[in-house]
Amino acid sequence: MKNFSILLFALLITTVAFAQKKEKIKGSKNVTVAQKELEPFESLEIEDNIELYLVKGTTQSLEIEADDNLHEIIKSDVNGTALRIYTSKDVSSSKKLTVRLTYTGSLKTITAKNEVQLYAINELELDTVSVKNFDSSKSFLNVKSAKFSLAMNDKTKAEINVKSGATTIELSKNANLKALIASPEVKIDMYQKTIAIVEGDAVAAAIRVDNNAEFTGKKFTVKNLDLTAESYTKCAVLATETLSLSASGKTEVSLYGSPTSFSVKKFSNSAVIFKKED
User: Fold this and answer.
1) Where is the secretion signal located (predicted)?
2) Is residue 148 in a domain?
3) pLDDT tens-digit profile of 109-134?
4) pLDDT at 3
């Protein structure tokens, strides 16, 4: 009975693995354009190596530019207020696989997965918006928002230009970020071999760098900075008025600027601080 249970479990695992594999398809290289109206949505999830462009408008719609035999495998499903865009087959090659999505002010969350390339060349202009990148996806965004958050995980990349009342960023598992930020309040958390190069300015910023992460912010001017650096990390920061520092492990902190107030909450292990010229 025990051997039968083990065999049954193995068969189930194999069946699930095969079920998850998609049939492959190759594009015809004959590019055509098709448009589609959409039901109202507040959240967006894109998958499967699609190149998607976000454009703000008065009504929500979809425009697909792709090899003519690929149109039918590009799916868009609205479940409740969630729109999911994906492919029903694995595209091995194509001349074009681009989606242009017109959104309205009701959009709140965007999730990109599986090597998606997400673009907002014109400003992504929303009251509150949250963007999440997973599975080697990439985002290239111009954002204007009262409240903006970005979460990146698992070999993702992003280049962002943000104007926001409050900005929150979380990076993990080899994520790579280049950012230009103009925001009164900024919160950045970095873990697991992540890299961030940030420029711009903030009134107050809380930055946490841990577990082999590297933060370069020597052109990110912060009036009041709270910095926590732990484990094997490298940081370069610029504070002009106050700096509160907690450093431990084998961290290296390079300090630019001349803060009038400098407090150390924690300084232990092999942590080092370098004072740099602006």
Assistant:
1) 1-19
2) yes
3) 999 999 999 999 899 999 999 999 99
4) 52
The predicted structure's pLDDT at residue 100 = 97
Tell me, what's the pLDDT at 19? 45
| Structural domain count of the chain | 2
For residue 135, the model assigns a pLDDT of 96
Residues in the chain where the model's pLDDT stays below 70: 1-20
Give the domain extent around 60: 31-119
Q: Are 36 and 156 contained in the same domain?
A: no
Residue 144: Cβ-neighbour burial (10 angstroms; 0-12, 13-18, 19+)? middle
- Which residues, other chains included, contact 16 with Cβ-Cβ below 8 Å and sequence gap of 6+? none
pLDDT for residue 180 = 99
Cβ(153)–Cβ(136) below 8 Å: no
CB 107 within 8 A of CB 89: no
Q: Residue 212: inside a domain, yes or no?
A: yes
